[in-house]
Automatic annotation (TrEMBL):
Name of the protein this chain belongs to: RNA polymerase subunit sigma-24
Keyword Transcription regulation recorded: yes
Superkingdom field: Bacteria
Encoding gene, per UniProt annotation: rpoE_2
UniProt keyword terms in alphabetical order: Sigma factor, Transcription, Transcription regulation
GO terms of biological process kind: DNA-templated transcription initiation
């Protein structure tokens, strides 16, 4: 590829990179300025179209996110003019184009964190809160969000549309929440941050194996929430979520192999793990245990702590892992938790016992369910059944690293493995 075609491709790649890394910051700033989700999204969409036209020709600007913010702001003002809105609203929007940061009026001063708390208003149903914030803050597609929720894409699209309509109809303000609001909205905020991190940890899209920028943003925002939560008694689930993210991120350097496929926990080079993140995560887990108020995030973090405490997979305390999953399943009795528990059960009681549990879950649209079945079937010597299960897993994931790992496993049908 040479000449104009190459320049166009480079420009498109630059726009895609900015969307992946800066979408949440830009759209959050636009929403803060104009107080209108639809206007902010439409204006940013228009700005991205202009970027696709100009960047291949003129080059990528030194500050792409700033360029998009400025262009989107102009597009929003053009829209307001065309719609002939009230003079008062137009004058207000014009004043808001000043790039001077607003004076803080409450405990949340970060635009993206403010957006999370706003979208987690109690007037919205919890699934809608999470989905809308993932769309706005994480820049995830409707399909990616639907995959995270294990629901059809059309269902998720309707859910997001209804949430936007509810915000407009109820006139939910885009304001900094007061301290009393934080506790009421905290659970929804943590759920959003957890799913943003999960998308960064293992992308649901076909373009990249993971999104370290998204995972890092989730960690940054969770740290900010943790600082805020000191004012409402520092709920231990905040520490638990941060620990879970840190311990998962600590393993990232060892999770993708040279061939682009996932490297499972039992095969990872543990010397590549980030010792600093592990130490911080373990300290948070110990603090959670000291407080004695276990919750789902704390228990997941404790499970990660057991794994990252073992110098070799053979030293993993599987009985402790199963015991922690038993507690987690009591608090969060979901099929996904049951599936993860079954993986640990296989190490204690054997693959046949675990397979009976897995087969009873029926998560046919969930790639890890098929992958887990394939692993258990292989360990039982049922190669043909395992091959079919691997094929089903490949068909239900778009992630390139996951597909490569599954394909390699299907080809070899060798020794035992464990989920990534």
């Amino acid at each position: 590829m040479t000449g104009p075609a190459l320049e166009a491709a480079l420009g498109a790649d630059a726009v895609a990179d900015v969307v992946r890394t800066e979408y949440g910051r830009v759209v959050a700033g636009l929403i803060r300025r104009f107080g209108d989700i639809g206007l902010a999204e439409d204006a940013l969409g228009d700005a991205l179209v202009v970027a696709l036209e100009r960047w291949p020709r003129d080059g990528v600007p030194p500050n792409p996110a700033g360029w998009l913010t400025t262009t989107a702001t102009r597009k929003a003002l053009d829209h307001l003019r065309r719609e002939k809105v009230r003079d008062e609203k137009y004058a207000e929007a014009t004043m808001l184009t000043d790039d001077t940061p607003p004076e803080p009026t409450g405990p949340v001063t970060d635009d993206r964190l403010r957006l999370i708390f706003t979208c987690c208003h109690p007037a919205l149903a919890e699934p809608a809160r999470v989905a809308l914030t993932l769309r706005l803050l994480g820049g995830l597609t409707v399909g990616e969000i639907a995959s995270a929720f294990l629901v059809p894409e059309t269902t998720m699209a309707q859910r997001i549309t209804r949430a936007k309509a509810k915000i407009a109809k109820a006139r939910i303000p885009y304001r900094v929440p007061e301290q009393d609001d934080l506790a009421e909205r905290l659970d929804g905020v943590l759920a959003v941050l957890y799913l943003i991190y999960n998308e960064g940890y293992l992308s649901s899209g076909a373009d990249t194996a993971d999104r370290p920028d998204l995972a890092a943003e989730a960690i940054r925002l969770t740290r900010a929430v943790r600082s805020l939560a000191r004012g409402i008694g520092s709920p231990p689930e905040v520490d638990g979520l941060l620990a879970l993210m840190l311990l998962g991120s600590a393993r990232r350097p060892a999770r993708i192999g040279p061939d682009g496929s996932l490297v499972t926990l039992d095969e990872q080079d543990r010397a590549l793990w980030d010792a600093g993140l592990i130490d911080e995560g373990h300290a948070l887990v110990r603090e959670c245990l000291r407080r004695g108020r276990p919750g789902p995030y704390q228990l997941q973090a404790a499970i990660q702590a057991v794994h990252t405490d073992a110098l070799d997979v053979s030293l993993t305390d599987w009985s402790q892992v199963v015991a922690l999953y038993d507690q987690l399943l009591a608090l969060a009795p979901t099929p996904v938790v049951a599936l993860n528990r079954a993986v640990a059960v296989a190490e204690l009681d054997g693959p046949q016992v675990a397979l009976a549990v897995v087969d009873g879950l029926g998560l046919t649209a969930y790639a890890p369910w098929h992958a887990t079945r394939a692993d258990l079937l292989r360990r039982l010597g049922r190669a043909d059944d395992a091959s079919r299960a691997y094929a089903a897993a490949i068909a239900t994931t778009d992630n390139p690293a996951e597909r490569a790992w599954l394909g390699r496993r299907r080809e070899t049908l060798g020794g035992p493995t464990s989920p990534p």
